Amino acid sequence: MDKQTLIETHQRIKLFIHNTPVLSSTLLNEMTGAKLFFKCENFQKMGAFKMRGAASAITSLTNEERQKGVVTHSSGNFAQAVALAAKQLNTKAYIVMPENAPQVKKNAVKDYGGNVIECGATPEAREEAAVRIKKQTGATFLHPSNQDEVIFGNSTAAIELLQNKPDLEVILTPVGGGGLIAGTALAAHFFGNTCEVVGGEPFEVDDAYRSLQSGKIERNTTTNTVADGLRTYLGDRNFPIIQKYVDRIIRVDEEEIIRAMKLIWERMKIIIEPSCAVPFAAVLREKEKFKSKKIGIILSGGNVDVTKLPF
Amino acid sequence: MDKQTLIETHQRIKLFIHNTPVLSSTLLNEMTGAKLFFKCENFQKMGAFKMRGAASAITSLTNEERQKGVVTHSSGNFAQAVALAAKQLNTKAYIVMPENAPQVKKNAVKDYGGNVIECGATPEAREEAAVRIKKQTGATFLHPSNQDEVIFGNSTAAIELLQNKPDLEVILTPVGGGGLIAGTALAAHFFGNTCEVVGGEPFEVDDAYRSLQSGKIERNTTTNTVADGLRTYLGDRNFPIIQKYVDRIIRVDEEEIIRAMKLIWERMKIIIEPSCAVPFAAVLREKEKFKSKKIGIILSGGNVDVTKLPF
Question: What is the DSSP string of B200-267?
């Protein structure tokens, strides 16, 4: 977990990802009194930062491993990311998805060339299915957030952001499984100039906030949030990084998330998914603390059903 | 109407507009078989290309004229554009709007510092009101589309696009009042390398298509289109330019517009208004003719009520 590893990871995946643009908005700067720089991973390949972790994990395999393929369980962005990265790298991708997952998500994975394996709707069923595929095919299991190569891949969004804006005082990301904020914290530590890292998390799934307080990985008792990408919990690979390098986590309520999402849509004219709005909601909530600061925000993704919006 | 005028216009307004980004999408290229370059005027100040025409018109006034202010009637993007450009140039803006215009549009003009003058909901009432303001204040009347300075200002979007992609074979724009396509046609003529200009127009308001056929300015009998920015008709300043320099107009139906809009939202993760989707709908409609070509599309604007979408 040193600087060189992150540099090598970035070099290794550069051909398979976009160096996404950094946007700013006069109106949102005026509204917050801060200088905001949005790293637009909603414009990333397949529409989310998860492409970076997936590309990193697959490019770190040996040729022999790569021939046998990769397997993951996800019904979200990581499923599409693994399918697309595997396709680009000429690898088979086995994606375990619950049978009740929306058909549109299964189709998205298939469109990217992934093999969808359906399973029951419980965590046990999906793990069983993944283990079975692994045994049958020799495929390597990839975890959406709790795997070093994935975390290193995720770090490259903040590395690019800091290359573009070296004097950022703070970078914010959403906190779900912990893979994005852990990678971002490593990037800020090794590439920033005393740059803080702050997480945004919904009150409804504030496991990371509570984990940092208790010192052990907490689970969520409810998952009643519009930020559907953040309903997961931390893991043993990313939690120590978060403990060491993340400054704090700001919790926001559902109305704040929806308001922040709508503001970014209306003012910046870009499409972001609800989870992606959480860090900006955190800045709005603690406006006074962020005033006058140069702030980076990782816009994590833009995969949202535009016919089912929360506003 | 020479090249030098367009160059001078661009120089004059540069400080007051964004040089908006040009985006492309692998997925949309694959879908059409063409190479598409989208000039993102939805990211322009106040969210639409109209900012260019408004800035051009106001910067072309004498100091004396500018002190007396400007007046226009519009309930759309031009109203906001004039208000914002006038504010930047320290000029008073009088915007005549029908009393039944949505409050959100009136507020947007006021937010930019414009003076809203309400009038009856008929074309006669708004013209009367504009004439009255002109008499009372000595303000200069600005037309949203049928005024040389506005047309020259609009041309700068295509000039920037051609500076970025000099070998475009065709540029498409929507056709409403005719100001954008006329400016684009001038830019393609003076700055392009045998670059065609093609308009996209809804069947429901195909006045420009019929005008080119009949040789005189036709009006619309219905305005029943989702592309609310295109319900107007051509004028005596822009029609001759369109006759001389526009190659053809492709008409599209309402379903095609909505499908094109949704595709751009979902695949490019950017917000465009319905009128803005019309040229891409035209490319999809005549896919075979555009195949393998390098195509520029002016994305005209992104001001849409995100709580009232057509899909």
Answer: EEEGGG-HHHHHHHHSS----S----S-GGG-S---TTHHHHHHHH--EEEEE-HHHHHHHHHHHHHH
* Full residue range of the structural domain in which residue B137 is found: 51-141
User: In this structure, is residue A289 part of a structural domain?
Assistant: yes
Helix runs in B98-206, H state only:
103-111, 123-137, 148-164, 179-191
Distance of CA B235 to the CA centre of its chain: 14
The answer to whether residues B180 and B266 belong to one domain is yes
Look at residue B294 and tell me if it is in a domain.
yes
Structure tokens belonging to residue A163? 């290359």
Spatial separation of the C-alpha atoms in residues B168 and B171, rounded to whole Å: 7
Reported ipTM: the value is: 0.93
- Does residue A40 sit in the same domain as residue A117? no
Domain tally, chain A:
2
Q: Is the dihedral of CA B131, B133, B138, B139 positive or negative?
A: negative
Do residue B306 and residue A311 have CB atoms under 8 angstroms apart? Answer: yes
* A168 and A291 housed in the same domain: yes
pLDDT band at B121 (very low <50, low <70, confident <90, very high): confident
A289 is catalytic: no
**Is A50 known to be catalytic?**
yes
Give the chain B residue nearest A41 (alpha carbons).
B269
Give the pLDDT of residue B215.
98
How close does chain B come to A17, measured CA to CA in Å?
A: 13
CA-nearest residue to A267 within chain B is B47
Q: Are B102 and B39 in the same domain? A: no
Residues of B with a known catalytic role: 50, 75
